[in-house]
Amino acid sequence: MARKVKFPLKMADGASVRDPDELKMHFDLLSVLEYYANGKLAEWLDNCLYTHEAQAVRALDSLAEDFSQKLCDILGVAYTEQDGSAILEKVSDRNKRLAKLRQYTDDENTLAAADYVVFSQEELVKLLDREPGIKVIYLCGERFAIPADWKEITYVGVNHPQVYIREGLKGVAVEQAEVSSDLRAFKAEQLWFDLAEQDSAIAQNELGNCLGTMGNDGEAFQWYMKAAAQGCDKGQYNLAVCYRDGAGVGKDREEAFKWFLKAAEQGHGLAQYNLAVCYRDGDGVDKDPEETFQWFLKAAEQGVADAQNQVGFYYYQHRNAKENREKAVSWFIKAARQGHAWAQYSLAKCYRDGDGVDEDQREAFRWFLKAAEQGHKYAQREVSTCYSRGRGVEQDQEKSSAWSMKALKQDAVSLAVKVLTKASRQ
């Protein structure tokens, strides 16, 4: 009978295997090969009193074509054909990375995430290309530039590296690093240039971002074009923006539409939103209400707040059916939670009027206030009314006057702008 050992073999499903019977239940070849490569598998078998199997494992030729099958036979598990040499090479590379990483940290969580540790800007680009949905990346090097067009990622410094991140960039967090937003002082473009020259589409797009931030729109346009030509959705989107706005190239609405479409078809959320705007306004393409709604919906489902608000407004306009009113509220809620002022205002009106949701004056006031604090003048008027009438909040005439004044100041500014604009055209 085998005896259980002190150190287990950890499998991909999270199981800690302490004897060969458990190994058969939770077996995965990659994990076992990793233990084979570092000698722990044979040691584990010895400790389990499987001496014969341990000797057989030590006698294996890892370069043999049937290596993986023989290893499975020794362990008494079914063999599924895989490229054992390729897996072993991957295991060997991972062990080398672990050895390098251990020079900087003994944190178990970081070591366990060795596959998501990068030691250079080039490795960062390769990881982003390989794992587009990655959420956490560990930075173990001297200097890194954070890509501006890759969102919802947390970057964690291992050896307290210097990191450039564009000022005001949302959807990205940097921890345990020396952070700079001074593009020129950091010279972030230099970290991207060599990789861009090597035809990395990610680097070409990010170099374009750097050059655009520095005011070099013409050069930025050229790098966006290179990235777009390689099929990079982010490069295609940025190229479309250049054509739309005339940044580094003459304005061309049809070209803008073409590149928004290419990026949108790859699932780029902002491109989908802008494509919907093109169909709505007839900008570079004939107007098409159905295409407009479908592309707004695609962008909304990806979390683009402007699109969520537009979808909510669409259902709100078609509010003859209760189901549509409820759909409007659900989309307004999604956008409002992201801080979209118009959605917050619209959601507040729904709560105020019991339109698509149960009437709730406190919730109405709460969302009116959030929009008002962002400078939404119609919401500011509603907040003033709420304080004046004690609707959803304790009555307070002083606060009512203050919010009314904020809205009036915005009206005055708007009027002044209209007068100056009209005068300049005469």
What this model shows, in words?
This protein has 426 residues and is of the alpha/beta class. The protein has three domains: 9-87, no CATH class; 115-186, no CATH class; 192-425, Tetratricopeptide repeat domain (Serine Threonine Protein Phosphatase 5, Tetratricopeptide repeat, Alpha Horseshoe). Helices cover 62% and strands 7% of the residues. It has 22 helices and nine strands. The strands form three sheets. It has a four-stranded parallel beta sheet. Strand 1 (9-10) and strand 2 (16-17) form a beta hairpin. Helix 3 (40-47) packs antiparallel against helix 4 (51-58). The radius of gyration is 29 Å and the shape is elongated. The termini are far apart.
List the helices and strands and how they pair.
Blueprint: E1 9-10, E2 16-17, H1 20-26, H2 29-37, H3 40-47, H4 51-58, H5 67-75, H6 84-101, H7 108-112, E3 117-118, H8 121-130, E4 136-139, E5 143-145, E6 153-157, E7 162-164, E8 172-175, E9 178-180, H9 183-186, H10 188-197, H11 201-213, H12 217-229, H13 233-245, H14 253-265, H15 269-281, H16 289-301, H17 305-317, H18 322-337, H19 341-353, H20 361-373, H21 377-389, H22 397-425
Helix pairs in contact: 2-6, 3-4, 10-11, 11-12, 12-13, 13-14, 14-15, 15-16, 16-17, 17-18, 18-19, 19-20, 20-21, 21-22
